[in-house]
Amino acid sequence: MDLPYQVVLDEVSLPERSLEVVEIDGRRIALAKLGGKIFAFDNTCPHLGGSLGRGTLKDGCVVCPLHHWSFDIATGKCVDGLPHEKVAVFETKVENGKIHVKLT
């Protein structure tokens, strides 16, 4: 069965080059807005569980606030020479000013 998109936030609440954390069905998801596009990915860094939504954006990546591992926000892959590490990414869309995320 295909999971539906869920409304998580008003688009105006996520300014360009910002991060936000939302919860969907008990799961914490980080949102980023870069180049006018919305990205959604797992909030938890696989290293030591840092909140990626509390990190920073740099060169298309989110940087974990704990130990500075970087993950590509479009693919979830770690860009620090650790290709086996990644975070889940999720489909997003904006309709009527609302950000929708589809968990997989």
Helix content: under 10%
CATH topology: Rieske Iron-sulfur Protein
Give the N-to-C terminal Cα separation.
10 Å
Q: What Rg is obtained from the alpha carbons, in whole angstroms? A: 13 Å
* Oligomerization status of the protein chains: single chain
Structural class: mainly beta
Order of helices and strands: EEEEEEEEE
Query: Mind telling me the CATH superfamily name?
Result: Rieske [2Fe-2S] iron-sulphur domain
Low-confidence blocks of residues:
none
For the biggest β-sheet, the strand order reads: 1-9-8-4-3-2
What number of domains?
A: 1
How would a crystallographer describe the biggest sheet?
6 strands, antiparallel
Strand content: over 45%
Could you outline the blueprint of secondary structure elements for this entry?
Elements: E1 6-10, E2 18-24, E3 27-34, E4 37-42, E5 56-58, E6 61-63, E7 70-72, E8 89-95, E9 98-102
Antiparallel strand pairs: 1-9, 2-3, 3-4, 4-8, 5-6, 6-7, 8-9
Describe this structure in words.
This protein has one domain: Rieske Iron-sulfur Protein (3-layer Sandwich). 29% of the residues are buried. It contains no helices and 9 strands. A 6-stranded antiparallel β-sheet has the order 1-9-8-4-3-2, with no helix packed on it. Strands 5-6-7 form a 3-stranded antiparallel β-sheet, with no helix packed on it. It is 0% helix and 45% strand. With 104 residues, it is mainly beta. A hairpin with a 2-residue loop joins β5 and β6. The N and C termini lie close together (10 Å). The mean pLDDT is 94.
